[in-house]
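Could you help me review a protein record that somebody else here produced? My question to you is simply how this chain folds and whether the tokens agree. Thanks in advance; the entry in question is below:
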Amino acid sequence: MKKITAVLLILLTTLFLFGCSQDYLQNYKEAVEKTESREFGKERISIKIENEFNEENISQEILEELNYLKDIQVEVTSSFNESQEESKVYIKYRGLGYDLTVFSSEEEVIIYVPMIGRYIELKEENLGFDDNIKDLEEVEDLTSKIQKEWLNLLQKENVVKGKKDIMTTKDGDVKVDLYTINPSEEQLRLFLKKIFALLRSEEESLSKLVKSQNNDLDIVNIIDNIEEAVGKFEKITYKNQAYIDIDGYIVKEYIDVIFEDYDPEPGSNSIISVNVEIENWENEEVQNIEIPDVNKKDIIDIDSIDDDFQNFLD
């Protein structure tokens, strides 16, 4: 009788654990979708990219160029309402830091450039979409499509629920559950293939956007080159930790991706490390956003923007 009881307890425990593992994946998916569907709130995204190169048998000139690319950073802190957004942007590239403030609405995007004290104004007609807002919406929808592919790719064994904790956030101390997402390398490579396929499916819309900035760029060629470069990496690792609060929002998230090539060509990447930190707060709280009324004399002519920056640097 004791053996039968023990077997039943083991069976019930196994079924309980299996059922929980299914819930963990579903809970994570629901948290992602709920967080991304917010109409009001604040968000901070920090991206750090560290590059290591094979520096053997390359010239001093190329080595100096590669040194500029070893550390790239982008940080965006945004407040957003249903149809407006204000973002503070910091970019570190080639050893220099740049600050921008971006105001956006359904009709226009205004970018304030502190280093020259002037504005860039982009209206629908300046964005290269032939006055067809549908094309712009298709580009914006690309992120949602990629996210959907990612969630569909995950299996129950990829998502593990950790301990409950109290986390200090910009909303104060909140109760959170830790979810760890660890897909296999095979899943990661399949996901990357799907991303490149999605990018090619958006060729028409992406081409209009790219050609509005540079007519010589070929979007398909760019996608092909990136896919070829990614395919050369022999190992890809990914780790994702998401902290979900009692209301079902992801309040903090940490993502680490590492690409490794054990035998890169001279001047090529041996390692690319990507670190992403995301914070979300004031979820569904109305934000006070004011799009500036900019004087025409403070607006940079989009056709002469390169000259304005060069005059400042000189």
In short: The first strand starts at residue 41 and ends at 53. Residues 207 and 218 are 7 Å apart (CA to CA). Residues 39-47+71-126+285-314 form one domain. The first helix runs from residue 2 to 36.
